[in-house]
Amino acid sequence: EAEDYARAASLRDELKRLTETAKVQVAQANERFYRAFASGKIAEMRKAWGDGKHVRVIHPNSGCIVGKEQVMTSWSHIFKVGGGGLKIELEDVEVHVMSETAAMVTCIEFVDAGPATGKIVATNVFEVQNGEWKMIHHHG
Q: Cα–Cα distance between 64 and 71 in angstroms, integer?
């Protein structure tokens, strides 16, 4: 009613700044996940993931694995089978911030595990936990 265009523009600019900041933070969280994936170190992978019963992962050719500890067990198995030092390259990375506490990244993974290689379309979902963006869902 007040037609305060200056205030409206200020709010618009602040929302844009917050969204851009969140996009950078989510992109960094996504990079942390892929560094952990490439390292083959479960301790690093654990740092990238959030906590909760809603945490889940769907690996290629597997069902949905639910719960932080079960998800970490699945990554331990992948690291044992694939060994450390995986090479992972990403293409078409898109960061989508849905709210102040929820975001999604879509990308294409090119994974080289030595004798096995693959191209995988992935969706990664993040939420803010204790002030930090953490992965809560990975679907490859």
A: 9
